[in-house]
């Protein structure tokens, strides 16, 4: 694997996608068997956060420790970045100290600039546009529960956001069909859909977009949703709650998927809004396996980018 950064799954090849997935599964298995990994001994990961996080911060920190490396949590508000220092200077300075940079922020361009101006690998830990680490963990979870990815169908119902975008790219690389249902005006970015459809030609995945949640759910092996109000959209919450009502993943909607369909959600979840309790806390839900797999999927990414 010759990965320089991990910013978008659209940028990686089908072979690299599978290599990362295989490595994640191997690292998980070995870790559970008590194998001690030292691939990142002496390496430091600078982790910049301008948004809140539970899973991402914890899984990256623990992942670095488990690989023998050192994670450094950096709240952007405590950095000069938060007072207006440029991405250019931040990238250059950090590259003199750390072996890799993980960033969670608003503007996707900031992540691209960090990679462009710095000289160390950059990992996208969520922007307003994409959440690629999440999509790797999501498909790893699907693979563990279904024994394959190719030919399965994932239905995503809700907001056409960062999580949906990265799932489109991941499904296209995995040869998984994906149907996205969003309200009018909340569709996925047209360029992401176009890119995913282009990528899908290589693997035979079928990507469809609709405004009809029932249509998306048909024959789904995996059902996914995400919060209706992402970080940074808090002012729109009341309006969104009204608009998204028909896109709630509840018993009636879930019944349209295959009988053995599983439910995934990146978390944090808002029960009673995008999903009902009987679904997210029911037997079809694998959300905590999915959360755990953030750790293993990201360890594979860290090893691929920074490992010896
Ligand atoms: N799913 C996810 O990225 O969770 P956090 O916001 O808690 O990191
Ligand atoms: N779409 C959500 C994902 C949170 C992990 C957000 O951006 O807030």
CATH class of the largest domain: Alpha Beta
Q: What distance separates the N and C termini? A: 12 Å
Strand/helix succession: HEHEHEHEHEHEHEHEHHEHH
Proportion in β-strands: 5-15%
The oligomeric state is single chain
Proportion in helices? 40-55%
Average pLDDT figure: 98
Strand order of the largest sheet: 7-6-5-8-9
Characterization of this structure:
- The structure is a single chain.
- With 308 residues, the protein is an alpha/beta fold.
- The chain folds into two domains: 9-130 and 293-306, 3-Layer(aba) Sandwich (Rossmann fold), CATH 3.40.50.1370; 134-290, Rossmann fold (3-Layer(aba) Sandwich).
- The protein is 44% helix and 14% strand.
- The chain has helices at residues 14-32, 55-66, 87-97, 108-117, 132-146, 162-174, 190-203, 213-217, 237-243, 251-254, 277-280, 287-306, and strands at residues 44-49, 70-75, 100-104, 122-124, 153-157, 177-181, 207-210, 222-225, 262-265.
- The protein has a five-stranded parallel β-sheet. A four-stranded parallel β-sheet has the order 2-1-3-4, with helices on both faces.
- Helix 2 packs across helix 12 and helix 6 runs parallel beside helix 7 (190-203).
- It is globular and about 55 Å long.
- It starts with 13 loop residues before the first helix and ends with a helix.
- Bound molecules: phosphoric acid mono(formamide)ester and norvaline.
């Amino acid at each position: 694997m010759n990965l320089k950064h991990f910013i978008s799954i659209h940028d990686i090849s089908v072979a690299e996608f599978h290599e990362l997935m295989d490595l994640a599964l191997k690292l998980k298995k070995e870790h559970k068997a008590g194998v001690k990994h030292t691939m990142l001994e002496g390496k430091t990961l600078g982790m910049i956060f301008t948004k809140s996080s539970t899973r991402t911060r914890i899984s990256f920190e623990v992942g670095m420790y488990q690989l023998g490396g050192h994670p450094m949590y950096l709240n952007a508000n405590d950095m000069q970045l938060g007072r207006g220092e440029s991405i250019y200077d931040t990238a250059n300075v950090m590259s003199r100290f750390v072996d890799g940079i993980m960033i969670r922020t608003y503007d996707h361009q900031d992540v691209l600039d960090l990679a462009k101006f710095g000289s160390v690998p950059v990992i996208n830990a969520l922007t307003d546009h994409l959440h690629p680490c999440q999509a790797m963990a999501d498909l790893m979870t699907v693979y563990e529960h279904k024994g394959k990815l190719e030919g399965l169908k994932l239905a995503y119902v809700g907001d056409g956001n960062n999580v949906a975008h990265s799932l489109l790219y991941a499904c296209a690389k995995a040869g998984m069909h994906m149907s996205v249902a969003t309200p009018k005006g909340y569709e996925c970015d047209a360029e992401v859909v176009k890119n995913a459809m282009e990528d899908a030609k290589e693997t035979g995945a079928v990507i469809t977009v609709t405004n009809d949640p029932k249509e998306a759910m048909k024959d789904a092996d995996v059902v996914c949703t995400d919060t209706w109000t992402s970080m940074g959209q808090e002012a729109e919450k009341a309006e969104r709650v009204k608009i998204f009502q028909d896109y709630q993943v509840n018993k009636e909607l879930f019944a349209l998927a295959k009988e053995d369909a599983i439910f995934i959600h990146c978390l944090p979840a808002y029960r009673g809004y995008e999903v009902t309790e009987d679904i997210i806390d029911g037997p079809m839900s694998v959300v905590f396996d999915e959360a755990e797999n953030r750790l293993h999927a990201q360890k594979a990414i860290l090893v691929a980018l920074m490992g010896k």
